[in-house]
Design a protein that fits this description.
Chain lengths: 431, 163
């Protein structure tokens, strides 16, 4: 017994110390597992083997595929087409460009699952345009950064695959994808409300409406890109292929569309595209490997059970516990990035939320991911916020103030996801 | 030291090329398997097994790339007002811990490789070692790169102390 508590102490404290002293998260996870295994006299070989078995999974392959396909599409000029399409649909309302920003992010989310990619492609295009048209820069950044979170919920989303892995492989990636769809779209619609109110109050401009012939061409142009999400969602729902296979098909499809239909970039751009994907994947994949060693030790020391008991000791009221867990995830999300938090907190919270409170694992996944997505838009550490601020050339404080009305919308969606299960489960239960 | 780093870089470029080819190969294998299943009612019986070997190799090569290009994310909660010297020392410590990780990968990766030689993957009958041999290989790269950075950061530390 003494051994277990001392082991837990070594695992957690060495991890935190390394983290605070700026050691990479991936290696902090692995080394704290190594130190704890040394203390507990566990064979080092099994700790190292966990690194390998952690990534030895067919569903994991979807992560490199989706990241590659998103990278091909964004380099190939998809964002410009999606923005044009969104503009044709909604640009003519008051504050048109801001609404276009939100809608285009929704579309972009169907191609890439990365909020940072959304901000750096759609935001890089729309923030300067909005500022030129007389929008306040902080408002432009606020809309861009918060709407970028839609893409994390709308399939494909590699973070959902990470969640499925961290939850122990029993969660269907296809169902998770469907579960994220409605909350993702709902988040976009909710963000449009404060946008419209602020736009009317400040008298932001409308965009010109184009004739239907032009609109048709724009729609056709964007449709080729948007067909990716139809392949993924349609393929997975109908059971034509697995999530991993849909990812491979999406990658091949985006290759064909980019180099043979859109033809905006030459095929030798594949070199830089592969290199960029590799850089993104370097972080994600090693993290998954390292987390698997850490998770092995956590399970060995029965940390999830201890946390469950601790939380149940605070309260056995479902609402109180869920609010508490949401708050915890929100706070953690403000200081740490998404992928590591999914990997670390999923196995710890799974027994409480799923086993004790009876929440469906799909709903739990969407709830967790939405929580952490909000964290990407908050200081002190918010990658989407940072990129948005650097594009809009404004300070973090100024952007955060402008985001406040949007935070409240995000929290409303989060509460709906947490307490109204059909919001998430309506679509996956069709499968 | 400069020359050594250049030589190491030119060697590592090849490893990265392999990783890129692997990424493409994974896509092609899984895609072909779908095409064969629906188009020709057959499949590649080794598709899953080989993709899994590739994803393992890919992951560990990218781990070394992360060390080389400093891609692995950390969190910055320390106040940036702390003395510069302090952060330089942290950098050196980071490099040393990364060397330790490289050493662990080399030693235990090699043992796992030897163990794996006795069992075989079911579909292709390739020895299990193929899943583990990548560990000592990237371990060596991690040790060498972290070693170079440790040396560089130590030099910076000394410079900071004299000036």
């Amino acid at each position: 017994m003494m051994n277990t508590s001392m082991g837990t102490f070594i695992l957690i404290s060495s991890f935190l110390v390394m983290l605070i002293f700026k050691f990479p998260i991936t290696f902090s996870l692995f080394l704290s597992a190594v130190f704890t295994a040394m203390y507990l006299n566990l064979p080092m070989m099994s700790i190292v083997q966990r690194l390998v078995s952690g990534v030895n999974s067919f569903s994991l392959l979807a992560i490199p595929f989706f990241i590659l396909s998103g990278e091909i599409m964004s380099q190939g000029g998809i964002s410009r087409r999606l923005v044009a399409f969104a503009n044709a649909l909604i640009g003519r309302v008051r504050g048109g460009l801001a609404q276009v920003n939100i809608l285009a992010s929704m579309f972009f989310g169907g191609i890439s699952g990365s909020a940072v990619a959304d901000v750096s492609s759609i935001g890089a295009m729309l923030i300067p345009m909005m500022v030129d048209d007389g929008y306040d820069p902080d408002f432009a950044v606020a809309v861009t950064v918060t709407s970028a979170c839609e893409g994390i919920l709308i399939p494909p989303s590699h973070n959902m695959i990470i969640f499925a892995m961290a939850a122990g492989g029993g969660v269907s990636v296809g169902k998770l994808f469907l579960g994220g769809l409605l909350p993702g779209i709902g988040l976009g619609l909710m963000l449009m409300i404060p946008t419209a109110i602020i736009a009317h109050k400040r008298g932001y401009p409308k965009e010109e409406s184009s004739d239907w012939r032009k609109t048709l061409k724009i729609a056709r142009d964007a449709f080729f890109g948007l067909f990716t999400i139809i392949i993924i969602v349609g393929g997975v729902i109908s059971g034509v292929f697995t999530a991993t296979e849909s990812a491979a098909v999406a990658a091949v499809y985006s290759f064909i569309i980019t180099f043979f239909v859109y033809r905006e970039i030459p095929i030798r751009q594949m070199g830089p595209i592969l290199r960029n994907s590799l850089k993104t994947l370097a972080m994600v994949m090693s993290l998954i490997a390292a987390a698997s060693s850490f998770g092995y030790l956590m399970a060995f020391l029965k940390i999830p059970q201890a946390v469950t008991n601790g939380l149940l000791a605070i309260s056995d009221n479902r609402v109180v516990l869920l609010l508490l867990i949401n708050l915890m995830l929100l706070v953690l999300g403000t200081i740490m990035d998404m992928a590591p938090l999914i990997i670390i907190t999923t196995p710890i919270l799974y027994p409480v939320v799923v086993t004790h409170l009876g929440m469906d694992p799909i709903q739990f996944g969407v709830m967790m991911i939405l929580n952490l997505a909000i964290g990407l838009t908050t200081p002190p550490v918010g990658s989407a916020l940072f990129v948005g601020c650097s594009i809009g050339k404004i300070s973090i404080e100024k952007a955060t103030k402008a985001i406040l009305p949007f935070y409240s919308m995000m929290i409303i969606v989060l509460m709906l996801v947490t307490f109204v299960s059909p919001v998430t489960m309506a679509l996956p239960s069709l499968m | 030291m400069e020359q050594f780093k250049k030589a190491l870089d030119s060697l590592f470029v090849w490893i990265l090329k392999i990783a890129m080819v692997m990424l493409l190969a994974m896509v092609v294998i899984v895609f072909l398997n779908v095409v064969l299943r629906y188009g020709f009612k057959s499949g590649i019986h080794w598709a899953e097994e080989i993709s899994l070997v590739i994803v393992i190799w890919f992951t560990f090569i990218s781990m070394a790339l992360g060390v080389k290009e400093n891609l692995h994310i950390n969190i910055s909660v320390l106040p940036s007002k702390l003395p510069k010297k302090f952060f330089l020392i942290l950098d050196v410590l980071k490099d040393l811990l990364e060397i330790l990780i490289g050493v662990i990968l080399v030693i235990y990766g090699w043992r796992l490789t030897l163990n794996g030689a006795r069992s075989f993957l079911p579909a292709t009958q390739i020895p299990n070692s193929i899943n583990y041999i990548v560990l000592p290989i990237v371990g060596i790269f991690i040790i060498l790169y972290a070693g170079i950075y440790a040396y560089e950061d130590l030099m910076k530390c000394k410079k900071g102390a004299t000036s």
